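Quality-control log, excerpt.
Job 1 of 2 completed; input and output follow.
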Amino acid sequence: MNFLRRLSTKAKVGTGFLLSYSSFELYMHLRTKRLINDRSEGIVTELDIETRFKSANINNFFVNPFEEYRPQTAFEFLLVRVIEFAESFYANKIEIHDKYPTADGEFAEVGDLLKTFRPNYELMRENSLILRLCMASGNYKSMARSARGKPPVRDQMLFTWLGQSCCLVQIGGLNILTDPIFSDHLLSKNVGPKRLVKSPMSVEDIKQATGGHLDLVLVSHNHPDHLDLDAAKEIGNLATWIVPLGLKLTLGRKGIYNVIEMDWWETLPVNDCLSGGDGASLPDKYEVLCVPSMHWSGRHVVDANLSLWGSFILRRNGESLLYHVGDTGYCKDLFDTIGKQFGPIKLLLLPIGQYCPSWHQSPRHISPSESVEVASQVGSTKIFGIHFGTYKLSSEPILEPKNKLLQLAEELGTDEYKVPEFGLTYVYDLSKIKAPDGFSASRKN
């Protein structure tokens, strides 16, 4: 007590704040552990696992209901930012400007290895136009016809990586954008990491590529590297925004009202959301599922976990076509559950970067080896490893995630675990993508 009396007023206020904050963090940790234990004790059947992984909110803050998760405090957050600031000098000197060893024993600059390609605007625009004409006429026969050696439009899936977890995906002429991020600087022109490779497309380019028909924007969470609010304002209400709970208000401040919030395990029929309602006539039934991920949210320290985070699965007629993971740590039971309920899944968009230092990152991000495990669990033969090479956000070398995933693919004898090139449009025939041997079809149809 004598020690406290000798402290200055500012020191007393600071000590009081630290004690209050530490007490709050301890309280939240104990409440979360109790919630996890209570849910675990209630599991009787396999299907009860889905109930175990329902979203959880304590005192208006979302929490992770996963035993594998370790929450980070503000102290850890600030410590890691200091470490990253120090490492940025090393990264800028060694990893960006110096030569990098390649697989054939030669050396190249990182900038040469992170190449940018021109997207296939013509094919995207053509498919989008065909779908809109079919919607207008009510006749979808042309969607099922092959032309010039390409699969029918209905069976075409086009994928273009724009950086981080931002991807433009076209399925049967429908256009979907994930986690939009186009800015050259993560936070501002004066603060935050600078983009290593410029985005291959701008928002205006996307409008041109889709013929002005961007149908859906899927946002996994509100971190600045997954949601560019300037780009969001530019997209506006052109598309239907599908986001986790709590993000509608953020987008509303940018004048975006065409927003649907989803909770974990919810299913959203989206035909009525497509092309101003014209999608209601589509012969195929599209739906988006929101599934859990092990991560956190917040654009600033003070708004941490006030909104939910999650992943999305796009389905057509009960068949899972696309799994946009966003960000997640690894939880075996969770991915087993997703695989049993919604697998097999045609294509996985998996984050493979930002996993070092592991003591800090592993509760929130998966590594390349864990991405391969996820693919096996959810029943997919095709991976696109993304969420790397765009900004320097963690300790692993910039190209390490790519090299590790490709090495794993080689060891497994598959060329379907890919790391996409920036801007290059990949074309798939959905009818020819098969489930892994021995993987049974999903039970929820």
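Job 2 of 2 completed; input and output follow.
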Amino acid sequence: MTPAFPSQLIANEALSPLDGRYRSQTAPLTAYLSEAALNRARLFVEVEWLIYSIEQGIYPGLQPLDSPHATYLRELPQNFSEQTRQRLAQFEKETRHDVKAVEYLLREHLSQVRPDLLELVHVFCTSEDINNLSYALCVKAAVEKVWRPAAEGLVGRLKTMAAEYAQVPMLSRTHGQTATPTTLGKEMAVFAHRLGRQLGALDRIEYLGKFNGATGTFSAHVVALPHVDWPQLSRGFVEHLGLTWNPLTTQIESHDWMAELFSVITHFNRIAHNLATDAWTYISLGYFRQMLSAQGSTGSSTMPHKINPIRFENAEANLEISSALLDALCATLVTSRLQRDLTDSTTQRNIGSALGYSLLALDNICAGLDGVAADTEVIAADLASRWEVLSEAIQQVLRVETAIGQANVDSPYEKLKALTRGKGFSEESLREFVESLGLQPATQERLLQLRPETYIGVAPRLTEEFLD
């Protein structure tokens, strides 16, 4: 049965959950990656090019802009009001071209202070000259001011947990099975280290920009002003904007830097996804105890006792969506037919969504970690009953002692395998076995001193050295 819902639009409702249910968590990105933010950046680039080109003196005999006029123009993108956006929308209805609309908006304002300069608005520019620089500025600001602080916040939270739990012995599970103990803090440090490496990779990303005309050759530029060193002027302008100059492109900037950036963020996402699944598992094992918020929490609509680990489940799903979008961006943006096609135009409009789902996930993981505490009694009790994990250390000692002539034990691995695999193993079992081997007194005593909770190697030291 198809429900007979009315077909009219529901006013003021968002299609994407990023702009609906989760808007409060993702709203900071709209300052840099919304359509309005892109248009503001376009206006900024147009204004800066007009001022920069005049200040460089490339137009013979042209009177420069005085300071009040330059300030007036620079305030246009700074004060990008709703009225400005509406006026821009009107121009776009006329032009059917988003960048041309920005040009007309700037011409309208320039006519009030220097009408003699109107023909220099958007001069020597193709729309991609404006767009690539605008996107680079928007993405750079979004990553540095919104996404990265959230990522660093997660790493910081993990470091705090690593320090807090550095000395807490914990049973490991390799392949989901009982394995050599570690410490809870060391496991948190592993994730902090992995995520931190990706932040280091982020530091090495160059935000590239190009400004070289219709096919990257400065052809019209050279004909109009042959005395100008156009590559040098282009480089100066791109660097004036705080970007890295790309000297060789077609009509478009090749977007390779975007693919590199999104690959790093995707890698960060997938490590964070691993963290979310591990945190979920530690809750399932009882190693993490979920704390009720002051407002209370409903875990199940029918089972009153439950507190569901929804923060980590939400993060898993949103990281998968973010990574899928970022993968698609990486694949699409690096390909353009010959010197230009428009596949990148609509693709880049999804950058905000890709980062938005990641930002939402990071917020949920941090909130999830803030809402759990290690149940050290459960962790200790689980570990105390797992004497079989010591079989690894015992067989390694027997191998070494036999090899150096201090013992004579045939096939130590097989002996421990027969003793422990699929069987109960206790402190008494260990003592009986070790005392039956005829080992040197010092070696025997060292093995008899083994306990599951102390069999953690240098895990605390590794954690402390990482944190230092």
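Post-run check on job 2. Residues 128-292+305-381 form a domain with the Fumarase C; Chain A, domain 2 fold (CATH 1.20.200.10).
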